[in-house]
Write a structure and sequence with these properties.
The protein is 53% helix and 3% strand. It has helices at residues 5-14, 30-38, 45-52, 68-83, 87-100, 121-134, 153-159, 179-191, 234-258, 260-266, 271-292, 301-322, 331-339, 346-356, 370-392, 400-403; strands at residues 206-210, 213-220. Helix 1 (5-14) packs across helix 15 (370-392), helix 8 crosses helix 9 (234-258) and helix 9 crosses helix 10.
């Protein structure tokens, strides 16, 4: 089982902040817990950043770890303050803490979005795997057992049943419809609800006439595949709306199974935002499973994982560029893209690279400088804040760039 204590620790520390746009919790399974127990201790970024964030970005992390005597002093000070709380003691405590380091206030702002590290073994390996996949040299093995990508034995065991099978309940076999055809029809329905051509910027260039009406929504992809049409019967719309709702509900079930505290936090959100966060979480969950799931029958687990991850990244790009989907659990994310057109693809792509940063033989488990750790933290946790921002919105007078 390839799993990172470091990544899990960073993500877990971000969980409770989801309501303010900074969370993504992947609650580990028993197997992952065992891995965490055997992993070497890591520096806690969230536990020490407030004191030392202003230090040199190239300063070794071990230089910032408090000694046992410092921790004992802090504990003693905290206990004393609890019994003798007054303004003098509080001010003295603040002054003492400030003397030990610097705070985040007025520190440098570094934008790690879309950062590519050409020297990274993991990124080089992913690029090579994608090139092989696109040229047909290698192919994904993820669907050999007919399960959805990112859904494996561990996920099914945690949830208690096979994920995505509910789609068959909405199929109308009397018209020759199957599950895949219904999912694609539902995707066309969702694309037809987009209010701007900017929502899917690469949605073909060949207009087709349907019902005597030419519309940017009625377009074809470069291979001639019809990607959008607005002609649906009331019965079709009813079935598709039911399928979309069910897909959201299933996303909520997966979220609650793996991230109970996280799921509880989403319950205070308005329903549209709550469901959108479920959709985002499930995409992240599936990405993590593709990277970390055990592959006992693979000749080269890393090579197989990289091939599957290449297909997953291409699927992501297709969804954001032209609104294309592959399976029923893609529908909630597509719906989010329609409802929140400013939802950016960059943090999703960056998270994929973050997942690879701690894979044995590809990434690393320890970081020597703050710059390296900052990039890692952004990719595996900060990205979710950017995914969530269009859902939560910004306060009056603020823009996405300011919030970012």
């Amino acid at each position: 089982m390839r799993i990172s204590h470091n990544r899990r620790g960073v993500i877990a520390a971000a969980t409770l902040a989801i309501i303010i746009s900074t969370s993504y919790a992947l609650i580990p399974s028993t197997q992952k817990q065992q891995r965490r127990q055997t992993s070497p201790p890591q520096v806690s970024f969230f536990g020490t950043s407030r004191r030392i964030a202003g230090l040199s970005h190239q300063q070794p992390l071990y230089a910032t770890i408090p000694t046992e005597s410092e921790e004992a002093t802090a504990t003693s000070s905290s206990t004393s303050s609890a019994h003798h709380a007054n303004s003098h003691d509080a001010n003295a405590k603040i002054a003492n803490e400030l003397s030990l380091g610097k705070t985040l206030d007025n520190g440098p702002v570094i934008d790690f979005a879309s950062v590519k590290d050409t020297s990274s073994r993991a990124e080089q390996a992913l690029l090579a795997a994608r090139q092989k996949y696109e040229t047909g040299v290698s192919k994904s093995t993820i669907n050999e057992n007919s399960r959805l990508m990112g859904i494996n034995d561990e996920v099914v065991a945690e949830v208690g049943y096979e994920i995505g099978n509910f789609v068959n309940e909405y199929v109308d076999t009397s018209i020759g419809e199957d599950a895949n055809l219904l999912v694609q029809k539902c995707a066309r329905y969702l694309r037809s609800k987009a209010t701007s051509s900017d929502t899917f910027p690469k949605l073909g260039s060949s207009n087709i006439i349907e019902g005597g009406k030419e519309d940017w929504l009625s377009l074809q992809s470069s291979d001639g595949k019809v990607l959008a049409t607005s002609n649906f019967t009331p019965d079709e719309i009813s079935r598709m709306e039911g399928l979309i709702k069910r897909a959201y509900d299933e996303s909520g079930i997966v979220t609650s199974a793996f991230a109970k505290t996280f799921y509880l936090g989403t319950q205070v959100l308005p329903e549209p935002a709550m469901k959108a966060i479920w959709a985002i979480y499930v995409w992240c969950r599936r990405t993590d499973e593709i990277v970390d799931a055990p592959r006992p029958n693979a000749q080269d687990p890393n090579d197989e994982m990289l091939t599957d991850l290449s297909e997953w990244e291409i699927r992501l790009e297709q969804l954001f560029d032209v609104g294309d989907v592959v399976d029923v659990l893609d529908l909630p994310l597509l719906d989010c893209k329609v409802k929140y057109p400013s939802l950016p693809i960059v943090p999703f792509s960056d998270m994929i690279r973050g997942m690879l940063m701690d894979i044995p033989e590809l990434g690393q488990e320890r970081y020597d400088t703050w710059d390296e750790l900052h990039l890692y933290c952004y990719r595996v946790a900060g990205t979710v804040g950017l995914m969530s921002m269009p859902v939560f919105g910004c306060a009056e007078g603020y823009t996405d760039e300011i919030a970012k």
